[in-house]
Amino acid sequence: MAADQAALRRRAEECLADGSFDVADSAYAELHRLGGLDRVDAGNWLRTLRALGVRRQQPSLAELVASFPDDQDILEFVAAELWQRAETRAAGAESDDDDLAREAWSAALKMAGPVPRTDAEGVRMIGLLDRFFQAGRRQRTPIGSYAEFESALRRFAAAGPESTLRAADLLAAESPVIALELVTGAELSAAAVLVRAVASAELDDFATSARLFDELAAQWGVGVRDLDIEDRSRWVQAMTDVGRFAEAEEACLRTIAVIEGRPGDAAGWAAAGMAADSFAHWRHVYRLLAYRLAAQQGRFRAAWDHLRKSVELDDTSLPDELRRSILRIRILLADQPMALAILAELRQLDTPDPYNTSYAEACLWAGTQWGTPTSEGRLVEPDNPFSGSRYTGQAAARALLAQAGPDVDGRQLLRLALLAGDDDRAAAMIAAEPLTAADPWSVQVLGAMLLLRTGDDVAADALLAQVLPLRRHDLDLRVLDAQASLIAGRYKEAMREAIAITDAVGEHILARAIQAEGEFESALAMAEGPEGGSGNTGSVENAQQLMVAVADYRMAADLHRDTKLYLETGRARPGGRVGSEPLAPRLFIEVCRRGLHAAILAQEGLDRLGLKGDAQLIDDAQDLIQHLRSVNQPCCRRWGPRWQRLLHQMRHVPDRDEASRLALLMIAYRWSNWRKRLVNGAFLLLGVVVTYLGLTNQLPGPESDTLRVMVLGVGVLLLLMPFARSLKVGVVELSRDADVAPLSGRSKSLRTSRLLLRANHLGTFALPSPPEKGRRAHARSREEGAATPPAPAP
How far apart are CA 58 and CA 49, in angstroms? Predict the structure, then answer.
């Protein structure tokens, strides 16, 4: 037996030297079957297998792994060889058989069994394992779970300090908490600080991340220009979040110039780490970062331009996650037919991942824009394709909430409950896991949103009061705080905050509407007086405040119109100004309605004071009437000279719609005065005629002094009637009803905007991402691990 093994060994070595790899492979396989294969023979066999490439069949690799389970060289070769075969097979055939890839992953995991002998070997093995894992995720059926990858990295990290940093770097994006644990006791170095900065950014602790990035630049000279494209994106996010907009915008725009191939604008910047197949991803990401930067600084036209350019990509061959992000943004710029196609595509790309809410959010947005009745007491048209979009979005969010496992972060569950409209369940989550001061600001904003929706305005204001002092640079949060003050009935505070915002950023539509609402409510409170009594209903100050509110309502409506046009066509109206996110249709209607109510009261106040109508007030009211009518009348969406628009509006007077009723209310008080004057004039004219007939005795019939005196008395009474409501002379009595003042719209039943703001709250403020986004990878991998059978042992 020993002689046969020696002969086989000599023949295999001779064939290997001669290049007869097939014969050498057969000889080594037979030697292995006889049990005479040693480590030298195994090394020679590896050379044979490398020479044979994909021509060699799988069982020999499995035999190698079974015979030498602790030999790192053999395991490394087997894993690499099997990955090469699996990728070749996946690219060249349409078979769904992934056994080769599963065996490769199992072989790669066996490399992580013992701790590598040296730090350099640990770094090399971590690189190989990362390559195998990334290749497995690109398979048609993803191979390998993140839990296994994470466990292997943690074992490799024990090989030495460089291995620890390498493992922490790979874990920082997906498992930032573990990455921070690995580098806690590590020696202070540029790599360790970078890992901590990236992990902090992934945990939404941007203040800490910005401080660490500054430390990296100050102590180790690693500035933003030296970071690769992925770490630079986190640097931009951190600086944007802490309010350092100028630095972040310069880095963002320079990187965009590098990505898009504009070296003149790049000014010597580079984008290390960007591969050819990741161009679309990074262009999309950096354009979104630039959009947020421009919007936070109030440059909304530039912000919308960045948003539009972020989706100017051919998404047919892009990864599903990137396609979902692109489609979710495209629906903001789409008309109704395009929006229907986008919703259908998002539905096909939808997954049960509780962190993938693109389809639910798109359905909710489309339902709010086109699937909601424009007025109370009416139903959506039966042929409206968006009539069920809002319910579909809520149902999708509820399905994700039901499928979420125990590994899903509690804050993401809260966000899903809010998207599903299940306020009771969200409140129960908060009660079971109360918010603490240690929670990130974004989580506290989620809690404030829930409290606003459930009507607990005081608690919501208290939560926002904890967040806002440190985030005064965040424009969205400042608008949210003003909105919460308005909802709670603190009109002066809301107006003061809104004025502070609009003085700096005049084109913020919602802030302008809140300012107008605060001015209107303050004027109403002034008119009512203390404890509901009568106040200064006819004061010049009250009328002036009402006219200012009307102007702000009209400006908010104009900004909404011009911004909608710019989003739909990409072209601005001549002389128009592009603002922030347009209002929801129901809220836009309420803004126009409330503006007209304020105009009615202002006009009434001027009439009570005996003043002529204000030209600007009349123009603002006419514009608001056209805005209100344009929601349901496409012909009113054309804007030209004022006299043409006024003639066009006259055509709609017979429609007897809400706009017509409000337009008539504008002149109701003045018409009441003119009607009273006409009646008094009629009394005077008739009195003059009757008195003349009585004095000149031109009465028909025979002469009678008694009749003349009676007619003369009636004439005198008619002449006195404009100055009294009832007169009686002898048996002759004339009387008329008291003048009834027209309804002015001062009733509190008109004050519905606070409820409407509460109902549209989630549509006007983007929900922040939950913390610990790395939990996403854990949840996905465990779900896939539960659905994927265990890999067969080689």
Answer: 11
> How far is it, in rounded angstroms, from Cα 383 to Cα 261?
47
Amino acid at 391: Y
How distant is the alpha carbon of residue 18 from its chain centre? 67
DSSP structure class, residue 274: -
Secondary structure (3-state) at 772: coil
- Residue of 666, 683, 672 whose CA lies nearest to 718: 683
Question: 735 in helix, strand or coil?
Answer: strand
The pLDDT assigned to 737 comes to 57
Q: Are 426 and 398 in contact (CB under 8 A)?
A: no
**Model confidence at 673: pLDDT above 80:** no
Q: What is the DSSP string of 183-217?
A: HTTSPP-HHHHHHHHHHHHHTT-HHHHHHHHHHHH
Q: Give, as one character, the DSSP assignment of residue 36.
A: -
Distance, CA of 196 to CA of 678 (rounded, Å): 83
Alpha carbons 682 and 490: distance in angstroms, whole number: 50
pTM of the model: 0.78
DSSP state of 730: T
Please check the confidence at residue 328 and state whether its pLDDT lies above 60. yes
- Cβ 179 vs Cβ 194: under 8 Å: no
Question: Residue 355: phi, psi to the nearest 5?
Answer: -95, -5
pLDDT of residue 297: 93
**Would you say the C-alpha torsion 763, 765, 766, 769 has a positive or negative sign?**
negative
Q: How far apart are CA 466 and CA 468, in angstroms?
A: 6
Report d(CA 292, CA 286) in Å as an integer.
10
**What own/partner pairs with CB < 8 Å and gap ≥ 24 does 20-29 have?**
21/48, 21/51, 21/52, 22/52, 24/48, 25/49, 25/52, 25/56, 25/60, 29/60, 29/63
Residue type, 677: R
pLDDT at 66: 58
Non-local (6+) Cβ contacts of 560 within 8 A are 509, 579, 582, 583, 588, 591
- Tell me whether residue 139 is exposed, middle or buried, using C-beta atoms within 10 angstroms of its C-beta: 0 to 12, 13 to 18, 19 or more: middle
How many C-beta atoms surround the C-beta of residue 611 within 10 A? 11
**What Rg do the C-alpha atoms of the chain give, in angstroms?**
38
Amino acid 561: pLDDT: 92
Structure tokens given for 388: 């069920």
- 513 compared with 735, residue with greater pLDDT: 513
- Using CA atoms, how far apart are residues 232 and 705, in angstroms rounded to an integer? 109
- Identify the bridge partners of residue 60 per DSSP, sorted by sequence position: none
**Model confidence at 757, in pLDDT bands (50, 70, 90)?**
very low
Q: Please give the backbone phi and psi of residue 475, each rounded to the nearest 5 degrees, phi first.
A: -65, -40
Longest Cα pair distance anywhere in the chain, in angstroms?
165
The DSSP output letter for 639 is: -
Three-state DSSP at 403 gives helix
- Residue 650 pLDDT grade (very low, low, confident, very high; cuts 50, 70, 90): confident
Mean pLDDT of 167-177: 82
Give the number of C-alpha atoms closer than 13 A to the C-alpha of residue 280, restricted to the C-beta side.
16
- pLDDT band at residue 566 under the 50/70/90 scheme: very high
Of the candidates 128, 132, 69, the residue with the CA atom closest to the CA atom of residue 793: 69
What pLDDT score was predicted for residue 317?
Answer: 82
Between 681 and 768, residue with greater pLDDT:
681
What secondary structure does DSSP assign to 256-269, as a single string? Answer: HHHHTT-HHHHTT-
- Give the mean pLDDT of 628-643: 77
In sequence order, which residues have a C-beta less than 8 Å from that of residue 51 and are 6 or more positions away?
A: 19, 21
499 C-beta neighbours (distance < 10 Å), count: 18
Q: Which two tokens stand for residue 520?
A: 């209107």
Q: How many CB atoms sit inside 10 A of residue 245's CB?
A: 17
Q: In this structure, what token pair is assigned to residue 566?
A: 């710019």
Q: Which residue has the tokens 């002469």?
A: 703
pLDDT band at 549 (very low <50, low <70, confident <90, very high): very high
Of 94, 72, 76, 81, which Cα lies nearest the Cα of 48? 81
Phi and psi angles of residue 382, each rounded to the nearest 5 degrees, phi first: -65, -25
